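WARN retry 2 of 3 for item q-0093 after timeout on previous attempt; input resubmitted unchanged.
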Amino acid sequence: MFIYLNGQAINIDDYDIGKHGQKTWLSFDFKVTHEDYHDVTVLLYDNDFRVEFPDESLDFQATIYRYYTSFTNLYVEGNVGDFHVELIEV
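OK item q-0093 returned
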């Protein structure tokens, strides 16, 4: 399944949706390959996103609440890292 951040599709492995007060909170996990590493990190540096999650009928503006990655060296060809992102509605 896919989540779209600023129109860019991310194929996610797992997700959780909740509320933080009145705001939607969304966390998800996904894999990042050596080849996609640059594009994904540039996207995440934006920090502010239009989030579209068609499978859950979600469409909202959000900012990064927290994210972390595995210690995988994605500069090495063939490596795949694990990313975890948590977004909160703004």
